[in-house]
Design brief:
Distance between the termini of chain A: 75 Å
Shape of chain B: globular
Number of strands of chain B: 10
Largest sheet of chain B: 6 strands, parallel
Radius of gyration of chain B: 20 Å
Largest sheet of chain A: 6 strands, parallel
Structural class of chain A: alpha/beta
Order of helices and strands of chain B: EHEHEHEHEHEHHEHEEEH
CATH superfamily of the largest domain in chain B: NAD(P)-binding Rossmann-like Domain
Number of helices of chain B: 9
Largest interface: A-B, 83 and 77 residues
CATH topology of the largest domain in chain B: Rossmann fold
Number of domains of chain B: 3
Oligomer: heterodimer
Number of domains of chain A: 4
Strand content of chain B: 15-25%
Strand order of the largest sheet of chain A: 3-2-1-4-5-6
Radius of gyration of chain A: 36 Å
Shape of chain A: extended
Strand order of the largest sheet of chain B: 3-2-1-4-5-6
CATH class of the largest domain in chain B: Alpha Beta
């Protein structure tokens, strides 16, 4: 009878949207590593923990009166609620019961509530015995005023901080990885301490004027000596005791250096992973990353230009030396094979990366990256480099939006040199942009000084600019003949002086950087 | 014009293709037999030569009938050596070289190359332009870099033509021709290209070279009006 009621209740809960939503909300708040709410919650809890510990420490000698008590009650309430909530969201008990019930129904067996409840309790017990849950529980204890000894559990409140600071748990993980080395070291150290404390106790225990009365003193002295701390409150007096001390001192130095090297090497080995984690965290912060696969000469130029504009970018390169090069230049770089499917997926091609540049020198790799990126995200902009003529088509088929072929770009320029070396200079300047000439497209805002004006009235020479042409929506009527079709509209080359500029037209201009930005500024301000 | 192309690999194949026009008389030089065979298959005049020897360079015609030299070998060091060798034989012949690494560009210039092209830089910038300035990129690709009727050309001002002695006043050009004037080279101030907005108050003289963009017919008309017998591309 009770069993039926419980099962019925479980089904009710499973259908109740409010219940599910509430549970999901608390999961996001407490547990979900990707939720921004959780970060805020963690910070709040860290502040609360530090405040409560400070107050408890202060109260050891001073009395804060009602405020201290009230605050303590508040803290403990928060902790208890948190503890219970965590137990609640740890798993779905109702699903367990429903599952058990349905299984029984399925085979027409009689359903017993007791085993199902046992299973539920076992799951919750697993939560209660997890290290973090134990710390949570112990952190509640220091407020039991009567038991002074329990005050030491105050420390567990500090341990609670681990829960809220992910970097600290990283440290613990590193140590855990060196378990074997640390255990070996601990074993040897334990043996040495045991041996030396026994020796000193045997040699000096009963001696007149000796400071070592008990075995406890002997162990204390050994530990203080082997750790190279050496308080000097207890010292050996006999030559034999001093001999033990000498051995202990020498081995102590060995232990310390061994211990340090274990920790350091563990971190050195972990460094790449830690760096990667930081990188992934960085990736999550923005949605407009450009991923540059291949940091060769081409990639380097792209990165340099993008970085100068403070664009968010990430370099992915296979060779470690080149990765180092990118890092030392201050760019976010990751060592890895760009044709690795899982890696690209982890890089959040879906959310964080807006543009992918395949600039490796190997067309096979470029095609593969293009395919993978296109498969992962339909909307990402892919620019690929083709090193061979026959690869251009393949890259387009693979899903590249633009294909750049170094040979093509160059041969056109080079062949210009033969007849027209001066025109070559100008063209090379326009293409490389490192002369005074830069080319830019400026959108005309509605109501700005160019909107509705003719070319002659705008007076480009006054702004020290040369108008190359205007891109306007397709189908604009014009008596002018030199019109070239682009994807976005028509390009009117060198429009006549009475050509009227409309809003949202794009002016393609030549000029030096300064003149261009000055003009853009003017245009933007005049539209306000 | 007789042009020698050193190296027939990767980029060089395409450049040779581009230069392969009736008015150009190409000769491909390489020291690898398979490259020479490939070039011969395309119908080029070829020479299998070890270009590190001055004697062999002379036999190709450097210092006598070769008018332009392209150094398109795959290795920077080889190219630099070639530039120096050629320069030591012929002090005036124009030499164009490609550079693999940015650091080697000054070396090429010191060795005596007239123009050094960094193909990877051009490609990198092209990629950057496609990402950040898609419209500019499209306009350049679809006009200047395509086979459509819009060209970048140079026009020399002849003595006594209508621009000789005039100030660089754009309006007279602008009304009569469908041309964008980019800039000029003043023969009195060396051979450096001056962008138009930098030299507004400039007085044009005979021998100055204008750089314009426009359709074939207008460039042609301007050339005729300035009585320039030069060819264009």
């Amino acid at each position: 009878m009770i069993g039926r009621k419980i099962v019925h209740l479980c089904y009710l809960l499973d259908d109740n949207q409010t219940y599910l939503r509430t549970k999901r909300f608390f999961y996001g708040l407490l547990s979900d590593p990707t939720s921004p709410m959780r970060t805020r919650f963690d910070v709040t809890m860290i502040v609360l923990v530090i405040a409560s510990v400070s107050i408890l420490v202060y109260e050891i000698k001073q009395d804060l009166g009602w405020f201290g008590d009230a605050f303590e009650i508040f803290i403990v309430t928060v902790f208890i609620i948190e503890y219970l909530l965590r137990a609640w969201i740890y798993n779905d008990s109702r699903s367990i019961i429903i599952e058990q019930y349905e299984q029984a129904e399925f085979v027409h067996a009689e359903f017993h509530i007791a085993p199902a409840l046992k299973k539920v309790l076992r799951e919750k017990w697993r939560y209660a015995t997890s290290p973090l849950a134990i710390i949570d529980l112990l952190a509640i204890l220091p407020s039991l005023r009567g038991v002074r000894f329990l005050r030491i559990f105050l420390l567990f409140r500090l341990f609670k901080l681990f829960r809220y600071a992910s970097n600290v748990s990283e440290f613990a993980k590193v140590l855990a990885e060196k378990r074997f080395e640390l255990a070996t070291l601990g074993l040897i150290a334990g043996f040495i301490v045991l041996a030396s404390s026994t020796a000193i106790y045997v040699l000096e225990g009963g001696l007149d004027g000796s400071q070592i009365d008990t075995l406890y003193d002997a162990v204390y002295w050994s530990l203080v000596t082997v750790s190279t701390v050496g308080y000097g409150d207890i010292i050996p007096h006999s030559p034999e005791g001093r001999f033990v001390a000498m051995i202990l001192i020498v081995s102590g130095i060995g232990f310390i250096s061994f211990f340090t090297s274990i920790i350091v090497s563990a971190f050195a080995a972990k460094l790449n992973t830690l760096r990667e984690q930081r990188l992934f965290a960085e990736l999550g912060r923005f949605q407009d990353f450009t991923l540059i696969c291949g940091y060769g000469r081409v990639g380097e130029v792209v990165v340099e230009k993008l970085a100068a504009e403070k664009a968010h970018l990430l370099v992915l390169e296979k060779e470690p030396e080149k990765v180092e090069l990118a890092r030392s230049a201050g760019y976010l770089a990751l060592q890895g094979d760009a044709s690795d499917n899982a890696l690209l997926e982890r890089l959040h091609i879906q959310d964080s990366i807006k543009t992918v540049v395949c600039s490796t020198g190997d067309d096979v790799v470029n095609v593969f990256i293009t395919l993978t990126a296109r498969y992962l995200n339909k909307n990402v902009l892919i620019v690929a480099r083709a090193n061979k003529r026959e690869s251009i088509r393949k890259l387009q088929l693979a899903g590249a939006d633009y294909v750049v072929a170094p040979f093509e770009a160059v041969s056109r320029v080079v062949s210009a040199y033969v007849d027209q070396p001066i025109a070559f200079d100008a063209l090379y300047g326009i293409l490389s942009g490192n002369e005074d000439i830069s080319t830019d497209a400026v959108v005309v805002p509605a109501g700005s000084l160019a909107d509705g004006k003719s070319i002659d009235t705008i007076d480009f020479p006054h702004y020290r600019l040369v108008l190359f042409g205007i891109v306007s929506p397709k189908g604009r009527k014009s008596a002018h003949t030199s019109v070239f079709e682009l994807d976005e509209g028509d390009f009117h080359f060198h429009p006549p002086g009475d050509f009227l500029v409309a809003s949202d037209d794009v002016l393609v201009l030549f000029g030096d950087e300064f003149s261009l930005s000055h003009f853009k500024d003017k245009l933007g301000k005049s539209s306000l | 014009m007789r042009i020698a192309i050193f190296g027939y690999e990767k980029l060089a194949v395409d450049i040779a293709d581009y230069l392969n026009k009736p008015r150009n008389d190409l000769i491909i030089v390489d020291n690898k037999e398979e490259n020479i065979r490939e070039a011969a298959k395309q119908g080029f005049e070829t020479v299998l030569a070890d270009y590190s020897h001055d004697q062999e360079l002379r036999e190709i015609g450097i210092g006598t009938d070769i008018e332009t030299i392209f150094c398109l070998l795959p290795d920077d060091a080889e190219n630099v050596f070639l530039v120096i060798s050629v320069r030591s034989i012929d002090a005036r012949v124009p030499i164009v070289s490609i550079a693999d690494a940015q650091d080697s560009i000054p070396k090429f210039l010191a060795a005596g190359a007239d123009k050094v092209i960094d193909p990877y830089e051009i490609s990198g910038l092209k990629i950057w332009r496609m990402i950040r300035k898609p419209i500019v990129s499209q306009v350049i690709e679809k006009t200047l870099m395509s086979k459509l009727d819009l060209h970048l050309a140079q026009v020399t001002i002849e003595k006594g033509s209508f621009l000789d002695g005039r100030e660089l006043a754009e309006s007279s050009l602008r009304q009569q021709y469908d041309l964008v004037l980019l800039g000029l080279v003043d023969c009195n101030f060396g051979d450096e290209f001056i962008f138009r907005t930098r030299g507004l108050r400039h007085r044009l003289g005979a021998g100055d070279i204008l750089v314009v963009i426009g359709p074939y017919s207008d460039i042609d008309r301007l050339r005729r009006d300035l009585r320039a017998p030069e060819l264009f591309w």
